[in-house]
Predict the 3D structure of the following.
Amino acid sequence: MNTAEKLTALRAEMKKRRLAAYIVPTDDFHGSEYVGDYFKAREYLSGFTGSAGTLLVMPERALLWTDGRYFLQAESQLSGSGIELMKSGQPGVPTLPAYLGEELSQGDVIGFDGRTVTGAFVEELREKTDKKQITFYGKRDLVDLIWEDRPPLSAEPVWELEISYAGLTREDKIQKVREKMEEYGADAFLVTALDEVAWLLNLRGGDVKHTPVFLSYLFLTKRRAILCAQRKAFSEEICRELQRAGVTLLAYESIEEMVSSLPEGHRILVDERKVNYRLLQAVSKGVEKVNRPSPIALMKAVKTPKEIAHIRSAHVKDGVAVTRFLYWLKTHVGKETITEMGAAQKLEEFRAEREGYLEPSFSPIIAYGAHAASPHYEATPETDAVIRPEGLCLADTGGHYSEGTTDITRTIVLGEVTAEEKRAFTLVLKGHLRFGAAKFLEGVCGQNLDILARQPLWENGLDYNHGTGHGVGYLLSVHEGPQNVRWRIGKEMDCVSLEEGMILSNEPGLYMAGKFGIRHENLVLVRKGEKTECGQFMYLEPLTMVPFDKEAIDTTLMTAEELGLLNTYHKKVYETLAPYLAGEELAWLEKATAPLW
Amino acid sequence: MNTAEKLTALRAEMKKRRLAAYIVPTDDFHGSEYVGDYFKAREYLSGFTGSAGTLLVMPERALLWTDGRYFLQAESQLSGSGIELMKSGQPGVPTLPAYLGEELSQGDVIGFDGRTVTGAFVEELREKTDKKQITFYGKRDLVDLIWEDRPPLSAEPVWELEISYAGLTREDKIQKVREKMEEYGADAFLVTALDEVAWLLNLRGGDVKHTPVFLSYLFLTKRRAILCAQRKAFSEEICRELQRAGVTLLAYESIEEMVSSLPEGHRILVDERKVNYRLLQAVSKGVEKVNRPSPIALMKAVKTPKEIAHIRSAHVKDGVAVTRFLYWLKTHVGKETITEMGAAQKLEEFRAEREGYLEPSFSPIIAYGAHAASPHYEATPETDAVIRPEGLCLADTGGHYSEGTTDITRTIVLGEVTAEEKRAFTLVLKGHLRFGAAKFLEGVCGQNLDILARQPLWENGLDYNHGTGHGVGYLLSVHEGPQNVRWRIGKEMDCVSLEEGMILSNEPGLYMAGKFGIRHENLVLVRKGEKTECGQFMYLEPLTMVPFDKEAIDTTLMTAEELGLLNTYHKKVYETLAPYLAGEELAWLEKATAPLW
């Protein structure tokens, strides 16, 4: 079927159920950042392959919302499909809920697969459509009825994360979560985020690209722990271990039944920003929902001492791989044909040589020249540029190791760079160094610190349109909360104090459309510093160990203090990596990390 | 009656009404920062005269909660009264609601004058006492029944703030507020904050110390504007003007009736953090409360261009007065006996010489030596210290002028200062200068900027235990919201973007118990700066025009950039004030503002 035929088939199913609109988002049942092939219903219907976008089908029209990263790609892929492109965030473009609020008629019904949208999204829909008495139909996945060759649900083998890596047993973790349930007065807790289930049970899997998790739900009560997952993904041994820890394994689909079986008068903890609509609907009328942030998110964000020791070692390995890549790229560019995708492949090879390396932690961004002006650029065979011996190349990549997850960006000098590029490179570096040197009181949030990274840019009328930092999982998602670093303070309670053991990225940038892009990213660890009469002070320890490219630094723009911070970091990089390098690579590292005055 | 007799009389009234507890706070019916004598029921009962404190009377015990500023004073004033002191914020000391939650029995009744507590406070009480089915009795002011010589309600003459000062007519203001009511879907709006009523109606009064407001409520509907206030405070002319603007004047007490008269099915806008419990109870069951921040607070915070022009001129007058005071103090100290209260009196005289000066905008803080280590120190005849020609004197004072309200702190060198004092003085000044030089994107809140002022201290394990800045009213309260500068991000929506036309104080400090205290405070105006591709940038214009005392600056601790900021400010101070000074005072100003390298 082509797109038109697919839409016709879907509309026939909509008509049978008298639906005025059907929404197809880009989500699995767990709100994952990446989704498996089974869940790519929006891509199947529309032909648009971007990682973010929501399709709305109505009897006469079909529209697709996506964001700035994908305008060009969506225009090209939707061309001739009859699907209209809605450019999210552009002036005059309504959000999908606002559009439906305007377009629908009194008493209309909106359909969607209730497992692919969160309770919070449906709440927003309700607000926008309330005055028209519009109702929702979330019981059926209509795309499934017309999708003949749909890929099966992924069920890759689940594996055990040894206690020597995790630092806490699953029994201990479950106990801690039950204490939080007690504190919230909750009799049950529905865990749907895949990385939360994986963290809690010290298990990993392979059902989601770049994120070693497995499709599952966990239903926790004071006495029972029910894991709803695909039995075939579990070995006998893991099943025994789970049983020993008091965890019962049931079928993936049985979660709805489990939720609805909770008796009246009980209270269930659900984070409505994360839990899907269908499961929220399954909660019985007489059961009270306690809508609070999942306590697992915070526990998972604060790394155990064991995890931290391993993470430091993962960063040494990653530092060796990326440093060798930098040396290779800078010495080979112009002498052989290297494209963005080729360079990414080479970096992957350097990482793969390291013991314990598993896979990339996200799709690598190797962006040459003007390509780097798009912060989320991802090379495709169509765009794959040859890297030439001039200008800058931005490399934002990361890996999963048994010892933890890395995420690093370096902006690499390949030859001649302009004064404008140097100035931009240096201003961003100043912000990176200042944020990295922050000393602050316990209780401070990322929102308090963000300005440290942006100030050198703001002072020059410049800015970057993304956050300064995010949390990073331990062999889980490379992006995790609840902490983050940005300046906008939302109405939701998303300002989380930075606690000892949390990891943050420190990644200011600057993007000049049509010209170049700069980003400098280290991961840092939040640590306790001195305790004085004024309170407990905290600081950030750099985890990433790779030199910044001094060739693009305009030292006249840096203060003596900033140069000192850079030199101290580079000294530590040299001392850390030197034992693992030799010959020309070592000689290069020595030069690359030599002090700058 | 002595305190014991008063408590006995109150307990007799409590017993008649079967009250297990009676709460007497330090508030008028409007949540004002300062209260008139009529409202000093807590002081009358307990003998404790501090500006903050809540008395709890139970059949067998009486307890008074107050904060760290008043521990010593309360201990002394409560001695022998039988009232126990509860030191708020100290480890192991429960809050009043938590204490009641523990101590009371099933089904007990808590009493208070429902006009002296906010809806939010009663909500907190309810949370802590809910499981014991405790109820509230807020209908009667029991203290009034026993207080024989109670001072009358203040009813000072109300006066008109000319349009040439206000910049907007009361009709225009009411119209703007009605637009907001429309936006919130509210049919009525209950305004209880005295500065909000005064601002809206371009009227001022004299019923609250340091705040030229008058006792009143405003009840606004789409068509009507009812002012409930004391008729005798209004001249015939103002009554006519109000009538012309569509404002009806009713008795102060009739507000409850007005509120309760709103018919079922209507929606009333009330800010439950501000409106008193009794009035919230008066809202009929069938009327929906829209609990949102009062829109007047934000309108009032954003000064009109006319107000801004006047405010700049008030600051020039205030700068002349304070500069003359600095010169006088520094040249007279040690030659004649000057006490803290005497110095305050002298500064008041310098201010009183300026045309348009009305009164102090708060009780002056002149704190010599170790006295300044208490940020809120206020000299009394008992503590009034002689200022000697050595060390530092902190002067935090302000005035109301027809042209606006000032608030300034200078820390003054009187002779020899220690290296520790110089270092503290300089670190605080660095923070003051950095915050003052902030350039930031529109949308940024005080919480994003606070770290700029604290960073030089935090880097040295130091801090100050108060906010960095507050809003300032126009001939209203010297402390106003909704914007503020501090780092803690509350759960309530109290993060407000800094908008052009808002005023902030910039007042970092450092307090060394038993030794000295430092604070440097200017008022600044939020202004729009350049607009670039990255957005609208904002900056802060200093309004306060008085030199900082260079004699305590350790220039080795300051960067060239910070010295440049200080020199630029001092140059502007000289240019602004020089036309109004002559002779020795002018010569001194020239020296005091000469560049420092």
